[in-house]
Design goal:
With 421 residues, this protein is of the alpha+beta class. The chain has 10 helices and 18 strands. A hairpin with a 2-residue loop joins β10 (270-273) and β11. The chain is globular. The N and C termini lie far apart (67 Å).
Length: 421
């Protein structure tokens, strides 16, 4: 029996998707729930699993094709020469046994490398999806050093570049001495590489142009003394993590403060629908997260009902999903307000761009010690510039300025969050 492989139903706001990779080829045995094909929309990467055991009969739409909801992209001959999952697992175990024996000495030497690695090294391993056992050790007492990981990454990158330079998916600079077959576009020793724009990047470009042309954007600024939050986190951060299992960060406190301010100034929490203004009775706050595919904005739903611990947990979960391309479309839909933190990259000041149809976005920036006046004395304080970009069609300057001033007061005196004053 032939079974059709179809594109999953896409949300109304997503018109189509592009096939970016088939994990199986015609004639190969496929097992139910194995990853079969990946589709890229302008929001997320969708993973389509194998629906039934069988053999991949044919591929109707190749990688690079643009497809729509429910479109047939391939077919499976159900049950044809399908190998049971248990049998396949046993075969895999048998074939792996010899390899495991050959690498046992290396594995045992490196098995505890993570335990003997610094937090910076463990973070570097996680960022590049590496295991300590993959990397030769040079530190004393089987200690994995940051230099070991960096050397491995450099050697691995060089090997990939020399073996398959055409497979590089992002623009890169390659020294002419390392190129045996220069790519198309080489002029003398000046190299260029042309790659197609991803659907996410193309959608971001489209939306940025759209919002510039269709809204009356204006930005107001203020600065916040972060000393109270830094002191709060220093006093209760460890206890917070012990109780809730997640670190206390500044973002959750800003989300909570912004939620209080949104409830006081509902026009900031509004959006345009044609000639109507929608005032939302709930706060769905989008958190801008940088991923390897570009900027994504997953939504924290009903932040007025969430605790700081729940907000922190959700942010960590979204960040992990974004890093591994696991965000679902439903997690990116909607939103009534957005917060973006350019400070994590060192930005001192910027003017964020609206995320339509929302009417406002808050920009956080890096914390920098600066001289400020307190009680007629000059003191050094950890200061952060904040920016609120808003749609002047809906929001008057007074509302924008007082919203930002309220946010500043709540952050500088966190007790106000408890007392709602």
């Amino acid at each position: 029996m032939s079974y059709e492989i179809k594109v999953p139903v896409l949300p109304e706001s997503v018109n189509d998707a592009m096939i970016i990779n088939w994990h199986k080829q015609p004639g190969e045995t496929v097992l139910q729930d194995e990853l079969l094909v990946e589709l890229e929309t302008d929001k997320v990467v969708l993973e389509v699993p194998v629906p039934v055991d069988g053999v991949l009969e044919n591929i109707v739409q190749d990688a690079g094709a643009t497809v729509a909801s429910n479109q047939v992209i391939g077919r499976i001959s159900e049950g044809a020469n399908a190998e049971p999952a248990t049998a396949k697992a046993a075969t895999n175990r048998d074939s792996q046994a010899a390899a495991n024996t050959a690498t046992a000495a290396i594995t045992s030497a490196n098995a505890n490398a993570n335990a003997h690695a610094s937090p910076a090294v463990r973070k570097l391993l996680a960022e590049h999806n590496l295991k300590a056992s993959q990397i030769p050790l040079t530190g004393k007492h089987d200690r994995l050093l940051k230099e070991d990981v960096e050397a491995y990454l450099k050697a691995h990158a060089q090997t990939e570049t020399e073996a398959a330079p055409e497979s590089i998916s992002e623009p890169s600079v390659i020294k002419s001495s390392a190129v045996t077959n220069p790519p198309i576009g080489t002029i003398g020793d000046r190299l260029e590489k042309r790659v197609p724009m991803t659907r996410l990047r193309a959608r971001i470009a489209e939306r940025l142009l759209q919002v510039q042309q269709s809204t009356a954007m204006l930005t107001t600024f203020n600065e916040i003394n972060m000393q109270a939050l830094i002191k709060l986190r220093g006093e209760y951060g460890d206890e917070f993590e012990d109780v809730h299992g997640v670190r206390l960060g500044f973002m959750s406190l800003f989300v909570k403060a912004a939620t209080f301010a949104l409830q006081r100034y509902p026009e900031i929490n509004s959006s345009v629908d044609g000639e109507d203004i929608i005032y939302h009775g709930y706060c769905d706050v989008g958190i801008a997260i940088s991923s390897r595919r570009g900027l994504v904005v997953p939504i924290l739903r009903n932040t007025e009902q969430l605790s700081l611990a729940e907000i922190e947990s959700a942010i960590v979960d979204y960040a992990n999903k974004a890093r591994n391309d696991k965000l679902g479309i439903e997690e990116l839909m909607g939103g009534t307000f957005t917060i973006t933190n350019g400070g994590v990259f060192g930005s001192l000041l910027s003017t964020p761009i609206l995320n339509p149809p929302q009417s406002a976005i808050l920009g956080m920036h890096t914390i920098q010690k600066r001289p400020v006046a307190e009680n007629d004395k000059v003191v050094i304080r950890p200061m952060m510039y904040v920016a609120l970009t808003y749609d002047h069609r809906l929001i008057d300057g007074q509302a924008a300025v007082t919203f930002l001033k309220t946010l500043k007061e709540l952050v500088e005196d966190p007790a106000r969050l408890l007392l709602d004053v």
